[in-house]
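Fig. S4 source data, part A: sequence.
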Amino acid sequence: MKGYAMLKIGESGWIEKDTPACGPLDAIVKPLAVAICTSDVHTLWEGAIGDRHNMILGHEASAEVVEVGSEVKDFKPGDRVLIPAITPDWNSLEAQAGYSMHSGGMLAGWKFSNFKDGVFSEYFHVNDADGNLALMPEGMDPADACILSDMVPTGFHAVELADVQLGDTVLVIGIGPVGLMSVAGAALRGASRIIAVGTRPVCIEAAKGYGATDFISYKDGPIDEQVMELTGGKGVDRVCIAGGTVETFEPAVKALKPGGKIGNVNYLGSGDYINIPRVEWGVGMGHKDIRGGLMPGGRLRMEKLSSLVTAGRLDLHPECTHVFHGWDHLEEALFLMRDKPADLIKPVVVID
């Protein structure tokens, strides 16, 4: 089979590999659509998780089942399925402890394009199929379904980590495809005011549709100062970090009320340390919680999130601003995500 791979840091291209083998609990699937993630950019061009050689990229896809293992009970060839970017080993001790995304070690639930070949290939392997696949709802667009792989569960996880409550004022830093889902998740959880940090008009318009009430730009000055001006010096109850750098935690802490919580799902692709301002953190005693986490994966998560779509509570279509058809456009879509033109939110490649 052919796959689009990271050859080494900064270099990528199409390669030939053997079709993966199917274990008794596993599945082999073929993509219906794949989406490009900023994480692919961090991995390929920044070497954020270290060098990888001839590793097929990608972790966002919707697919059709081709083969299942002898012990798979709930899926069969021909099923159209949702696949989370994080595919834990559900019998692991970490999963039993409630942290399935770290099954086998920190971040080890993230397998695609990290520990094993990803989804930018004619076929790919899914471990623990009964635990990690979910049936795609009837009539769902395969391109929209890709957004359920990563953007929705990751953006929503920032909201969960920040513990957004009814009536909260929430700051969402970064309104790319993940941050937009943090806006949507905060709105679904009952936030009364959602302050979004972003500059691209296409993202601002989408954020309005998802429930953002106020907008600020990091280009107009320090984020925390603008937040304090908007809130009359009170600050915010919760912060969701879905973009930025290791420097972003400083304004987040400064903008947060005592007793507030920060939920970070931003992939920090470079930098050695995170800046936490000592005084604004209450000299260590301000009850300003900082939590960062990899999104939960698994079938139940996919089923619950897809039900929000089928119930009309969540519209995924605004995320997919650039839809291509055919593998020949995969590299174009990848470079588009790297360069991030003003009209881009998310590029998706539908496999016709």
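Fig. S4 source data, part B ends here. The chain is about 25% helix and 25% strand.
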